[in-house]
Amino acid sequence: MQQKLLITDLDNTLYDWVSFFTASFRSMVGELTVLLQVPEEAILNEFKAIHQRYGNSEQPFAVLELPSLQRRFPDLSRYEVLKKIDPALHRFNSMRKRTLTLYQGAADTLAELQHAGVKVVGHTEAIYANSYWRLRALGIESYFSRLYTLEGKDAIHIPPDSRWIDPPGGFVTVVPRDERKPNPQLLMDICQHEGAEPTSTYYLGDSLVRDVAMARQAGVTAIWARYGTKYDPENWSYLVKITHWTDEDVSREKELKAKYGDVVPDYAIDSFAQLKSIVLDGIGFRG
Asked: 20-24, long-range: CB within 8 Å, 24+ apart, which pairs?
């Protein structure tokens, strides 16, 4: 009997990334407006330019590259600047600690899947510095055999005195940036790497055009995490103000929606716990 493989997205599939990140970022920016004596809109515009340069809206310590910060403290060392902005970083971390939580039933479900012999791997377009940290912070890294993350650009500014812990050898596989979702060959390569047949593999994600369409093309069972699309639209509007997406990215997204907008998942679920009925029992919540 073929071993079952679950490939799961992370952001807005295991936890509500949109809500926790918006709350944390807003809290940090509120403090920065006071420390730097710069309006919020100006700070958001500076962040957006930095994020577009890195191709990532969640670039650790991007705050160090803010032009307004460099103008405010032109003669201070990096260490001295970090001390100056520590209240803002503390606000981010404090809010993240309060708001980064697993969707209900996620931990128990992952434990049951592991106990039943299902192999679980993560696949995300977040860079490993963020995605691996979240798995550890949420206490669920032990349920994963591997984590596939997107290749990042340039430095990520992790301070040498931080509590960052490197992933175990072989745990993280970095995917080249030109193999982004929805690339069905990437999923087929993951199946081969994990020693699983596509017919015994399940892919869980919150995006119809990126996750579900990719899974359907790769011949794996596509499960839509419909619950991951339920967040405050106002939070999404805020994220757009700091997005790393360029005009080219926006055009690509429109093309994907036109091409895959009517894709139908094999299953649609409204809670992470519903995954058990599909993967373990082969029944459940068809799209």
From this structure: 20/95, 20/96, 20/99, 20/100, 20/101, 21/58, 21/96, 21/239, 22/235, 22/238, 22/239, 23/95, 23/99, 23/235, 24/92, 24/93, 24/95, 24/96, 24/99, 24/100
Q: Are 40 and 68 in contact (CB under 8 A)?
A: no
68-93 residue pLDDT tens: 999 999 999 988 999 999 999 999 99
Indicate the pTM of the whole model.
Answer: 0.92
Any residues with CB less than 8 A from the CB of 100 and at least 6 apart, and which?
15, 20, 24, 134, 137, 138
CB 129 within 8 A of CB 137: no
Q: Is 147 helix (H, G, I), strand (E, B) or coil?
A: strand
Q: Find residue 121's DSSP bridge partners.
A: 7, 146
